[in-house]
Amino acid sequence: MLPVLESERLLLRPRTEADLDAIAAMNADPLVMRYIRPLGDPSMSREGVKARSFLNVDRGLGYWSVFARDDESELLGYVGLIPWPIEEGAVELSYRFAARHWKQGYALEAGARLVRHGFAGLALPQIAIVTHPDNAAALRLAERLGFRRESDRLDGLIGDPPVPGACFRHSAQAWRAADQAAIGLNAR
């Protein structure tokens, strides 16, 4: 079972079947899907999302639905730690938020909380992000989370039309060093 996680403003609750309609609706928004997949892609439908949502929960991996802590009535988006199909044994940070919730810092806050869980709670050695190379907001988010761009991957196609995905990685060692530096700065 995945744990419930919290941040200053957000509740990250393990995805349930009750969340699937809201996720499918988000996946049908052309703004949200612009850099991800073509509209109507079956893997982004309710059934496509359901088919992969609960596959790796026994390994501590999966998806968390994100809600405001003070109002759990509306799904803001989701974050996930999922097996990265490009590299055996690797884990990818996945995230998506409804367009009306962009530019409020939710992706950064939820992503940072899930990265902390991945490194501190699951003892993952590294986490990857693959995003569209033209998605400036996602590129900035990866960097703000401490990820470093490594390459564009031909085996990690993303978007419509498909292009090589921009691959970022973050290691547990670098995360711990940054976390300790932040603690030291906050103690002064």
TrEMBL record:
Q: Which residues form the N-acetyltransferase domain?
A: 10-170
Can the keyword Coiled coil be found in this entry's annotation? Answer: no
The residue stretches assigned to a coiled coil in this entry are none
**Top-level taxon:** Bacteria
**Keywords of this entry:** Acyltransferase, Transferase
**Protein EC:** 2.3.-.-
Q: Which Pfam families match?
A: Acetyltransf_3
Annotated GO molecular function terms are: acyltransferase activity
Q: Which InterPro entries match?
A: Acyl_CoA_acyltransferase (IPR016181), GNAT_dom (IPR000182), N-acetyltransferase (IPR051531)
Classification via PROSITE patterns: GNAT (PS51186)
Q: Which Gene3D superfamilies match?
A: 3.40.630.30
Q: Does the keyword rRNA-binding apply?
A: no
Q: Which PANTHER family match?
A: GNAT FAMILY, PUTATIVE (AFU_ORTHOLOGUE AFUA_3G00765)-RELATED-RELATED, N-ACETYLTRANSFERASE DOMAIN-CONTAINING PROTEIN
Q: What is this protein called?
A: GNAT family N-acetyltransferase
